[in-house]
Design goal:
two-stranded antiparallel ribbon; single chain; mainly alpha; 71% helix; 6 helices; Bromodomain-like
Amino acid sequence: MPTSRHIFALISLGCALLMAIALFMQYVMHLTPCYLCIVQRVFVIATGVIALIAFLHNPHTTGIRVYGGLVALAAAGGSGFSIRQLWLQSLPEDQVPACGPPADYLFDSFSFAEVLPLLLKGDGNCAKVDWSFLGLSIAGWLLVCFAAMILLALWQVVRPRR
């Protein structure tokens, strides 16, 4: 059976792989990330960093449970935004919100406090499916990954093993 340290390492490496894939899709495949994609990346990074800290810290039972809960919370936050994007992608075209300006323009023109609500809500760009594999869009695959991370993290909470 893998130890908690191995599980946290696996989650952290999985998040690093997800970010490598996201950057490959952005810079090699030239897929521009939408607002919700950017927010989901933040949650992937947060989940990975928490798991990496847990791996490096190598805590005892209580610490394993705390880190497991924090990883599960971060992954659950990301899955919520994945679900939001999947919902936007499932809307009929006449109900899709209007598209907004690119995120880099927003950050250049407005303060973070003004941009944050737009990022969290998403827009018409978030409803567009640029890439899919086996019938799932990027948001769908991220939801699958977040769900796997949540299950692994909750397993740490239930069965902490140093």
